[in-house]
Amino acid sequence: MATQTGQIGVTSENIFPIIKKFLYSDHEIFLRELISNAVDATQKLKTLATAGDFKGELGDCTIEVTVDKKASTLTISDRGIGMTQEEVERYINQIALSGAEAFLSKYKDQANNIIGHFGLGFYSAFMVSDRVEIESLSWQPEAKPVHWSCEGDPSYTLEEGKRKDRGTDIILHIAKENEEFLEQARVEELLEKYCRFLPVPIACGKKREWKNGKEVLTDEANIINTHDPLWAKRPADLKPEDYEEFYSYLFPGAEPPLFYIHLNVDYPFTLTGILYFPRIRNQFDMQRNKIQLYCNQVFVTDAVEGIVPEFLTVLHGVIDSPDIPLNVSRSYLQSDANVKKISAHITKKVADRLQELFDTDREAYQKKWDDLKLFVAYGMITDEKFYEKAEKFALFKNVDGKYFTLEEYKNLVGEAQKDKHGSTIYLYSTDRDGQWSYIEQAKNRGYDVLLMDGQLDSHLINHLESKLEKVRFTRVDSATVDHLIEKENQETVTLSANEQDYLRAAVEAAADGQKQSIFVSIEALGEQELPAVITQNEFMRRMKDMAALSPTGNFYASMPGSLTLVLNASHPLIKELAADVVTAKGAEVEAVDKQIAPLRTEEETLRKKTDKLKPEEVEQADKDRLSALSKSIDDLQAQRKEILDGYGKASQMAHQVVDLALLANNLLKGEELARFVRRSVEMIEK
To answer: Which residues hold ATP (predicted)?
Structure first.
């Protein structure tokens, strides 16, 4: 065979700059492409042998990857079908045939779309090489070996080669800036990443073992892909322990999964895979990029957003589909019809599997629910299709550890938890132990209380309120028990207006200095209830809880916390405290009030006179008198407040009432808690 030189058959000469420049960020995929070609050549030979067209011995079909650091070469050798001179000219020299120009025009700005199309997989070698050689010998009888060489421009050399055995060697002369691919460890890392499930053995170097305290090379070939792809087998041929073993292989050291789904679809698209439900304890366990995407057992990526619905990216496992191209851009994935179908199918399969587990063994399903809950909640919040299915298998858990579907819980609370406006109130706790006193009060009224202590429950609650008809969620500590579910008949406060006024001011003074702002209100809760309880506004607390989950926070996250201290006007202790403050300070306060009364009367009279006039029409004397009255009233109000503040700050009982309420809500800590303990001892000793 005479030496032949020529130009590679592509009309656009910018093919090599495009490969080198636009694909540089993904340059490691060259090895995946070349190994895939070698596997394809090997599989084709096996097909020819099965059909009887190839009569020879297959022998050892291992693909060998050899690093020669001294020669700066990386060689991929296979014993597949090889190529004749004519085939080299057709498949190597004629890039994309007549479609090359149109292809380059379309994809030159989309680097990830180039490799793998129109036979360009081989040309990924030029991403890392100064020169690429091919030594090939076809399987066909009487074929002659071929040697092809190119230095990364349209010129090539084609001559008779030296290969004695069928197959192909791809010899890459690695460019200086890509010398990382001359490191044995780096090449093995890439082979392990991309090729560990390919159906043809791939060898790279020799196996290592520890001997006499150091690592030494053996004579045994280091086979990269020793594990079969479990997803390619029939589910009927597998046992649960096979799936568990495969999970351990994929994710060494991980806790055993809850369960798995084996995907096996051949119409209207081809999809196989195994998805595992990991144990998710909290939001920090929600690790994405644990689903590996393969195309015909060749690893593509573990960034599966756009292929797998967002909430399912927390699953672990593998997906393999030839209907998802090896190299695609994110925008391409989002618009591809097959990808959308695959995404919808995976959602359906996951929902169906959960429904199956619920239907076949509800008891076992409930035992797994605490691990499943975060995942299901995430899906219900973010995926409408999943929500529609999850309504049947999503569970509520109450503070007694009982489980209910959404429909079951609606029937359970029934009329008992409807308020006077006809809305059903779902009471819930986020901390069973810390909010026990509130839970107990609600249960004493015959109410049921849900336990909503999950990481996403504040978001889920908002979502459910938008879905469930006339249902509102209220945390048990957001109001007093009578106001959690407002009924027509509410108990009235019997304390006089003065008693309420004095009592409120005194207790506010006792509560002054706490880390959170405390507002004092007075309600009649019944003699059997606690003398004072802390409540937190449902809306503001929920917004702060949701803001705490946001990585950037928001307006509500920065707002200071505030509490309402509700004094139980029906309790003997509060009645006694109200009577005591009136006895101790009533005369002084009344004396001040008597001074304030005529000033207010005069102020009101003047305001009625001046309010009808324009500002410029008001006489200066009236302006001066209004200002003087306002200052006098403010001074007397301050004096009045000082009297009641003095009582509140000095009253052990007032402090004790405040601290007991805070303690019941787990809000008394540090120095405040120490003072409460000392005061309690002093009061007991009296």
So the answer is: 33, 37, 78, 83, 98-99, 168, 330
- Known binding residue 653? Answer is no
Please tell me whether 83 is known to bind a ligand: yes
* Number of other residues whose CB lies within 10 A of the CB of residue 13: 11
Architecture of domain 230-360: 2-Layer Sandwich (3.30)
pTM of the model: 0.71
What is the dihedral sign for C-alpha 309, 310, 315, 317?
positive
DSSP 8-class letter at 237: G
Across the chain, what does the average pLDDT equal? 85
CA dihedral 435, 509, 539, 561 (to 10 degrees): -80
Q: Decide if 329 contacts 115 (C-beta within 8 A).
A: no
- Domain boundaries along the sequence of the chain: 4-223, 230-360, 394-484, 497-535+564-685
The answer to whether the annotation marks 264 as part of a ligand binding site is no
pLDDT of residue 504: 92
DSSP string, 273-323: EEEEE----SGGG---S-EEEEETTEEEES--BTTB-GGGGGSEEEEE-TT
Write the DSSP symbol of residue 124. G
Task: Supply the pLDDT for residue 644.
Answer: 92
Q: How confident is the model at residue 545 (pLDDT cuts 50, 70, 90)?
A: low
Q: Is 99 annotated as a binding residue?
A: yes
**pLDDT (tens digit per residue) in 15-36:** 566 555 544 457 888 999 899 9
Handedness of CA 177, 182, 183, 189 (dihedral sign): positive
Q: Which two tokens stand for residue 239?
A: 């046992």
Contacts of 446 (CB under 8 A, 6+ apart): 416
Q: Which residues of 285-312 are buried (b: 16+ CB within 10 A; e: fewer)?
A: ebebebbbbbbbbbbbbeebebbbbebb
| Architecture of the domain delimited by 4-223 | 2-Layer Sandwich (3.30)
Fold (topology level) of 394-484: Rossmann fold (3.40.50)
**CA distance linking residue 263 with residue 685, whole number of Å:** 73
- Look at residue 102 in the predicted model and tell me its pLDDT: 47
* 98 is known to lie in a ligand binding site: yes
The predicted pLDDT at position 284 comes to 45
Is it the case that residue 84 has pLDDT exceeding 90? yes
Q: Is 168 annotated in some ligand binding site?
A: yes
Question: How would DSSP label each residue in 435-461?
Answer: THHHHHHHHHTT--EEE--STTHHHHH
Task: Give yes or no for residue 111 having a pLDDT over 60.
Answer: no
> pLDDT tens, 262-309?
998 887 788 899 999 988 765 545 556 688 988 889 888 887 777 788
